[in-house]
Amino acid sequence: MQEDLVTTPVLVPEIERSTEFKLSGKMGTFGLLTTVLAFTAPLGVVYGFVSVNISFGIGVPIAFLAVGVLMVLFALGFTSMTRAIPRPGAFYTYIRAGLGRPAGLGGSFLALGTYGFNITSAIVVAGIAVNNLASAFTGHALAPWWAWSLIMLVAAWVLSYFNVELSAKVLSVILCIEVTLVVIFDAVMITNGGPEGQSFEPWNPANLFTPTIGVLLLFSIGVFNGFEATAIYRDEVLRPSVTIPRATQLTIVFLAVFYAISAYALILSVGTNQAVTTAGANAPQMMPNALLKYFGVFADQLVSILLITSFFASMLSLQNILSRYTHSLAVDGIFPRYLAKVHGKHGSPHRAAVAVGAVLLVVLVILVLSGGDENALYAAAGGVAFYGMLLLLALTAVAIIVYFRRNPSGISFWRTCIAPAIALLGIGFALVTGTLNMNLLVTGDPLLLTVLLLIPYAATVAGIILAFILRRRRPEVYKRIGRTLE
Asked: Of 1, 177, 305, 485, which is most buried by a Cβ count within 10 Å?
């Protein structure tokens, strides 16, 4: 509704009077960059996901570059919002600003659900990775997968209690090691050329225009999840108006180039003419086979160890993101105000972090008691998270366009309308493709697929309904939705 849209934002009075709810930190561009890059688990993507994408077509490298351009266009509008609306909350704040309070609260619930399923997937796959490594050395698993998942969940839980700069230091070390190893793999493969030598075909734009273009772009967009998390740390970085846009664009460019080159190297490892067939026959073994063939057993084992740290880094990054979304909703009174309190020494949302960790622990217990196959569990959770992120990006793109049309800011028309509109078309195409091909995101019977597909929409509707309830029963809370009171 028109009265719900942002015009001149005014901070909530009690927040103006006190800093007890305000996060603090001194992260620079590099710290923010590594924090959000860790979310994407680059080594995990190259090791287990890029080969799946190759099974849909040889044009994966050029597809990654094309999607990178698409995400840069989205980020032009996204970072314009960070300047026009200098408040934390990211998707929650921006969707509310453009589309009103009900949509904003719906978007926040969608974000919580999306990141929640994402970290659930990371928790499960981390436990699986430890058991796979143990089996490679001893021939059998040393403990149930959930035991390892629990250990890493607790470690991430503890780290999230402290200032985000501590997490940033841990994440930067892990990220630098895993990226270095992938770069070495890429350099050796490109220099070697593989069984068929160098080829331009993976870079040929014509290879995008195939019957599988929708699926190819769908899976390419999926690996860019995480770049948007830069805005969540607004109160914890130095010079946010500079640091956030810079880190956002650097994240996108890095991921586009990194994944494009790595996909090309993986294609070369088996040869351009055989890559699609090889990936289609056994995608999970494509990278391990390349490591064994060109680097030996030790390299394969080393990468298997670092996969575990990569998934842990993703867990920690997601734990921090969920804690900050929870904190924002608590500041506004949607969640108990108790969770909004910031640690006096660390400047962290420690109570929100404890609450998020506790919820994740309950989720892990439920997964264990369900007796479901762990591989199916992480795949299902990852599929829902992937689909939810597409929906979240689409909603945000619409909100950006609407907000700047109603609130002229002096920022160029290109950044505030044309660029996000082009991005919306690409994201919308991927969203439709995902809807029509949900069986590629999640395996299972039609009823399960339908239920999983509806979860992101159900979360959004739940937030919208709650907003209308608040407007009637608790108008003072309703007015705070989106970190403002007008």
From this structure: 485
Q: Quick check: 103 and 96 in contact, CB under 8 A? A: yes
Instruction: State whether residue 115 is helix, strand or coil.
Output: helix
- Answer whether 271's CB lies under 8 Å from 290's CB: no
Q: Is residue 259 part of a domain?
A: yes
Bridge partners (DSSP) of residue 27 are 237
HSE, CB side, 13 Å, CA atoms: give it for residue 463: 27
Within 10 angstroms of residue 361's Cβ, the number of other Cβ atoms is 15
What whole-number distance in Å separates Cα of residue 403 and Cα of residue 401?
6
Indicate which CATH number applies to the domain containing 91: 1.20.1740.10
Number of domains in the chain: 1
Please check whether residue 167 lies inside any domain of the structure.
Answer: yes
Per-residue pLDDT of the chain (486 residues; tens, 9 = 90+): 444 444 434 444 444 445 677 777 788 888 888 888 888 888 888 988 898 889 888 999 999 999 999 999 999 999 999 888 887 778 889 999 999 999 999 999 999 999 999 999 999 999 998 988 888 777 777 889 999 999 999 999 999 888 878 888 888 888 899 999 999 999 999 999 989 999 999 999 998 887 778 888 888 887 887 788 888 888 888 888 888 889 999 999 999 999 999 999 999 999 999 999 999 888 888 998 999 999 998 888 888 888 899 999 889 989 999 999 999 899 889 999 899 898 888 888 889 999 999 999 999 999 999 888 888 888 888 888 888 999 999 999 999 999 999 988 888 999 999 999 999 999 999 888 888 877 777 777 778 888 888 999 999 999 999 999 999 999 999 998 887 654
Confirm whether pTM is higher than 0.70: yes
Helix or strand holding residue 38 (H, E): helix 29-40
Rg for the chain (alpha carbons), in Å? 22
Considering the domain boundaries, does residue 405 fall inside one? yes
Q: What is the DSSP string of 232-296?
A: GGGGGBSSHHHHHHHHHHHHHHHHHHHHHHHHHHHHHHH-TTTHHHHHHHHGGGHHHHHHHHHT-
Report DSSP letters for 149-194, one per residue. Answer: HHHHHHHHHHHHHS-HHHHHHHHHHHHHHHHHHHHHHHHHHHHH-T
Tokens in use for 463? 């937030």
Residues 6+ apart with CB under 8 A from 147: 127
Partnered with residue 237 across adjacent β-strands are: 27
Calculate helix-pair angle for 374-406, 419-436, nearest 10 degrees: 150
Inside any domain, residue 483: no
Half-sphere exposure of residue 164, counting CA atoms within 13 Å on the CB side? Answer: 33
| Distance from C-alpha of 391 to C-alpha of 36, rounded to nearest angstrom | 20
Measure the CA–CA gap between 480 and 15, rounded to whole angstroms: 11
